[in-house]
Amino acid sequence: MKRILVPIDFSGDSLKALRFAIYLANKLDCHLRIIHVQKSEKFEIPFHFEEMKNEIIHTVQEYLEKLIELHSAGYCVKNGVFDFKIRTGSVYREIVNQAKYGDAYMILMGAYGASGFEEFFIGSNAFKVVRNADCPVITVQNEFTKGQLKTIVMPIDASTETRKKIPFVTDIASSCNAKVHILGVHETTNSQIVGKIEHYMRQAEGYFKEANVEFVSSLRQGDNNTFSSLDYAREVEADLITIMTEQAESSFNMFFGSYAQQMVNRSEIPILSVPND
């Protein structure tokens, strides 16, 4: 059975990520594992744990045990395991290593951590995890209030690597009965570039048809592919945007380097980053 890994630093965003992860684990029939990374063996009181404000708890292990107890009722996978790991060291390295050696299907984490701390997530650990993980990573900022994932935006650019996310998107869309918006994006009027994007879009359409995934296709030109994708996702009230973590270097690539970081940092909509491996 597959496993979803959820980093928890007890910040509000990490707890929002846990609730989203429980939903996806139920839909995808996955084990669920929490990971908490300590800078040292010294115990520190968690920063944001309103659910347990009346509890007397003395160790990180007790907090995690209580957290699982509070959320176990929502986890409904037959023969599924909902557990936790505690590791010490570099936050992003320990998360990436746990995902690798625990054979995680995906990592689902908060984009922000506890503000005021050295290991704050945004622009730091979240993006480092996205860039270094061998598995897909979903980053979230807002509460999963809809209780379901129904609309996925999948931007397509002119790079060959852009198509590598299609099988993973298909898996999620099929499990959640979601509609995929295939969004061709480009920053140029070059007909060869646009033609290549349209060709890739048709390939994605064929893949989704074969998998019986509902989809719609659109093509947009703009000054910045990140902003074009975000604007479209907001218009259709998307629940998830999918990107490639890193793509071959080209002036027409969509999410290479800073573009991926822009998307993770700027989007209030969850971002699914699929590694280019």
Automatic annotation (TrEMBL):
Species in which this protein is naturally found: Paralabilibaculum antarcticum
Sequence ranges assigned to domain UspA in this UniProt record: 1-140, 150-275
Species classification: Bacteria, Pseudomonadati, Bacteroidota, Bacteroidia, Marinilabiliales
InterPro entries cross-referenced by the UniProt entry: Rossmann-like_a/b/a_fold, Universal_stress_UspA, UspA
Family statement: Belongs to the universal stress protein A family.
Protein name from the UniProt record: Universal stress protein
One Pfam family cited in the UniProt record for this chain: Usp
Domain of life: Bacteria
